[in-house]
Amino acid sequence: MKTLIINGSPRKNGFTAALTGRLRELLDGDVDIVETYRAKVSPCMDCRYCWTHPNCVLQDAMQDIYTKIEAADNIVIASPINFAELTGSLLSWASRLQLYWVAKYIRNEDLWSGKNKYGAVILVDGGGGLKDIALGTAKRLLREMGAKFKDFVYFSGTDENDPLSDETTLNGLDNIAAVLNSAVR
Ligand SMILES: Cc1cc2nc3c(=O)[nH]c(=O)nc-3n(C[C@H](O)[C@H](O)[C@H](O)COP(=O)(O)O)c2cc1C
Questions:
Q1: How far is the centre of ligand 1, averaged over its atoms, from the C-alpha of 128 (Å)?
Q2: Pocket test for ligand 1, best of 19, 81, 124, 169 (most atoms within 8 A of CB)
Q3: Which of 91, 169, 182, 184 fits as disulfide partner to 163, beta carbons 3.0 to 4.6 Å?
């Protein structure tokens, strides 16, 4: 089992990292974590090279990440909520998923047929309590990577509390791990 976690937090030891670290311990198989703030991935320039070629012209760290996305059985998007959305860094990183959108809708290729990837989302915020926009975006990005959304954890209130001390959040991570570890798909 291979799981790829995309972490959109700027803080190396922040709450998103704490939750993804916990999930990593619960998951079977190989787990890779990409931190978008440190990954050195340029944003899509809409050059449209991929409209006529099956790859991205930008030669940077995303080339290796494309390979990981394609090989993954599970993909997890984890992010702090910034102004009700996923972080800007995660969205900038995600612009490179345009490669997959173009494959499907411009070049009419079915990249994900026969694959059965599962997807999950982890969101934290200071206490605003507004998850729907960020969750909707994360689900959309999972779809671009061929992953079926299965479950999410959302902790609102990091200004006051540690999500790792919250039983509902810990149970939520257990539930995500149980789904992602399932061999029958
Ligand atoms: C630029 C910025 C925007 C933020 N916007 C929101 C927000 O809209 N709602 C909210 O509840 N918290 C907001 N926060 C707080 C973060 O979501 C919160 O501190 C989160 O726990 C940080 O996660 P991390 O520890 O993984 O980096 C914002 C923080 C920053 C820096």
A1: 9
A2: 81
A3: 169
pTM passes above 0.70: yes
Spatial distance between the Cα atoms of 122 and 169, rounded to a whole number of angstroms: 10
Residue-wise pLDDT tens digits, 114-150? 889 999 999 999 999 999 999 999 999 999 999 999 9
Contact 69, 40 (CB under 8 A): no
| Ligand 1 close to Cβ of residue 133 (< 6 A) | no
Confirm or reject: Cβ of 127 under 6 Å from ligand 1. yes
Kindly state whether residue 185 falls inside one of the protein's structural domains.
no
The total number of structural domains in the chain stands at 1
In whole angstroms, what is the distance from residue 129 CA to residue 2 CA?
32
Closest CA to 122 of 184, 177, 40, 41: 177
Query: Is the residue at 146 inside a domain?
Result: yes
Structural domain of residue 40, as residue ranges?
2-180
11 CA from centroid of ligand 1 (Å)? 11
